[in-house]
Amino acid sequence: MSAQNVVYLDNNATTRVAPEVLEAMLPFFSERYGNPSSMHNFGGSVGREMREARESLADLLGCGTDEIIFTSCGTESDNTAIRSALTAQPQKRHIITTRVEHPAVLSLCKFLERSQGYRVTYLGVDAEGRLDMRELEDSLSDDTAIVSIMWANNETGVLFPIPEIATLVKSRGSILHTDAVQAVGKVPINLGNLDVDMLSLSGHKLHAPKGVGALYVRRKLPYRPYLIGGHQEHGRRAGTENTTGIIALGAAARAAKAHLPVENTVVRALRDRLENALLKAVSDSRLNGHKTERLPNTSNISFKYIEGEAILLLLDQLGIAASSGSACTSGSLEPSHVLRAMGIPFTYAHGSIRFSLSRYTTDADVDYVIKNVPGIIETLRKISPYKQGEAEPLSPLDAKPACGC
Amino acid sequence: MWEYTDIVKEHFLNPKNVGEMKDASCVGEVGSIACGDALKLFLKIEDGIIRDASFQTFGCASAIASSSALTELVKGKTVDEAMKITNKDIAAALGGLPKEKMHCSVMGEEALEAAIKSWRGEKVDAVEHSEGEIVCECFGVTDEQILHAVRENDLKTIEDVTYYTKAGGGCAKCHEKIEALIAQARGETPAPTPQPAKKLTNLQRMKLIEEVLEKEIRPRLQMDGGDIELADIDGLVVSVNLRGHCVGCPASQATVQGTVQGILREKVDPEIVVREA
User: Fold this and answer.
1) What is the rounded distance in angstroms from the CA atom of residue B36 to the CA atom of residue B60?
2) Rounded to whole angstroms, what are the CA distances from A379 to A53, A117, B147?
3) For residue B43, what are the β-bridge partners?
4) Class of domain B134-186 as given by CATH
5) Which pLDDT value is given to residue B172?
6) How close, in Å, is residue B187 to chain A by CA atoms?
7) Is the domain B6-120 a CATH 3.90.1010.10 member?
8) B250 closest CB neighbour out of A310, A392, A399
9) For residue B59, which of A282, A308, A283, A320 has the smallest C-alpha distance?
10) Which residue among B15, B33, B225 places its CB closest to the CB of A346?
11) What is the distance between the alpha carbons of residues A59 and B122, in angstroms, rounded to a whole number?
């Protein structure tokens, strides 16, 4: 299936490489294959292009070029940041994160907790996916080595108040890392005015290709590299640079800066139109996540009485690509940890669909989805034993949450 | 993306025999919305022959396809023939299912069994399985169901059991029991459980209780947003306070009696009693 006949509303999973990004990177796959570390001009000139890419990314983030480390992906950036903070402060044994983080942070924290004896606080969220700042404040202690809190949630798009969090964490002397993989390019970020110590981003979420990411590390922050070897990235991330990916990320950063207003006007308007139309057209549907404190491109909607995988496959039949937080799509038997943390009722959690738009989403795309989704929901509800208004036939187990708590 | 066969896709996209049957002779219901899938099977039986069948299913593509295939399988069969249909027959009729989705075929077999039992006038409980004891509390799966699935499908690992019955797919605290059931069904003797350590002094026991609570029990509850704190230790009686999401959680009693007491009995002393302070 080619991109021409798919309505792609899964941009929080990955994005299309922008044409200008592809154009910028292609020569580095072919004639400009030099190693930037080489002494000759053939390699050195690639290094100069890389420097330009670093400037573009620093410009997007409002930071210095010396504060950027190129990595292979968002997960590597997250792992590097957390491990660096722990290694640099061996006397501190406490980590604070949230229950709704991406697995790149959450699974690492659980691993550190189980195998290395760190104490981890997992902050909860309310029904709309928001943090309780008091809980964060109460959890901070002299023993807290790092606070790792995402900027925007990948499933619901809910934004955490990073500037406010940064001020609080700094006042208590801890290091703050934020996984901003979903936020970069969609919300304005100016690290020059922000007490964030480390920030992770990923290329393929902002129209660069897969296989490149970056980690911002604030100047003078104690830092311990994860990959040890050569002197690349000033010894902070060894390994020959992914020159094509880095050049592409630079081009994507320039494009993201130029299109930031579009994300917050055009994309937001499309998202709102899609969301309002679906919520209106389909009974027993609900929005998951806070309505306004949210990314402009994401809409997570639950349709009661039916299951997400079935919805996705019927959407797929019509060439619509989206994603779901249902158990059956994750293969884990339980619905998304994000929706569970928000306390979304099971009757809704299994039927959640995430639509995530981009600047390439068109009016026609949105019209097509609005036209087709209500019919799909109706088809599946006809098959379902659960009906609107009726007592749900197998109620006793419904009351029981699937957690062991 | 799951690799579904063309037959699964066809049964999902164009399911056969959908809907409630007003004049059904019997109905079989399994699953629940909390579990993520549920099937309601309707049969019309005349002279001991299944003349018609229909279904309503809440669930993923393979759950809908399994239900549709099941209704086609049973139509025209005698009740005795239908009783012999197993989850393997349903999966085979679909050209196979991804192993992670085998529980959808098991759900079909269970609904069929429930429907026929109700037609025969045997007592069936729509939700709780009347036979056996619940092993997996997350998905309400009994030991009888697990033993049956292991024998029927030659299952060897906990993962297999989860794929076929969902048991063990939630909090994972029943994994040891599942392992023992696999061994039992396969006629093997389970690996001997390690003997609790030698008799502890009061002080040693208190220290060990604190340590197990801190290192094993708290992290587990915290994953679900709950928490626990130790209130008192009096000999073998441990008093605790539940915190966080555990407060007011309908399963908190099960947490105290099951998880907390279970772990402490295993790690510290088999006679420990845990109660809320």
Assistant:
1) 8
2) 49, 50, 36
3) B26, B53
4) mainly alpha
5) 81
6) 29
7) yes
8) A399
9) A308
10) B33
11) 74
Question: How would you class B12 by CB atoms within 10 Å of its CB: exposed for 0-12, middle for 13-18, buried for 19 or more?
Answer: buried
- Assigned CATH topology for domain B202-276: GMP Synthetase; Chain A, domain 3 (3.30.300)
Q: What angle do CA A18, A216, A131 make, to 5 degrees?
A: 95
Q: Are the beta carbons of B251 and A401 separated by less than 8 Å?
A: yes
**pLDDT per residue as tens digits for the range B113-168:** 999 999 998 765 544 455 788 888 878 888 888 888 898 888 988 888 888 888 88
- Tens-digit pLDDT profile for residues A214-246: 999 999 999 999 999 999 999 999 999 999 999
Q: Taking Cα atoms as reference points, which of B31, B14, B63, B59 lies closest to residue A306? A: B59
CA distances from A396 to A161, A405, B33 (A): 39, 17, 10
User: Domain map of chain B by residue range?
Assistant: 6-120, 134-186, 202-276
Amino acid residing at B161? V
Share of chain A above pLDDT 70, in %: 93
Q: What is the mean pLDDT of residues A108-117?
A: 96
Q: Nearest CA to A206 among A143, A271, A250, A161?
A: A250
Q: What is the DSSP letter of A198?
A: E
Read off φ and ψ for residue A5, nearest 5 degrees. Answer: -110, 35
- Which pair of tokens denotes residue A76? 């590597």
Task: Please name each of the domains of chain A with its CATH number.
Answer: 3-13+259-388 (3.90.1150.10), 19-256 (3.40.640.10)
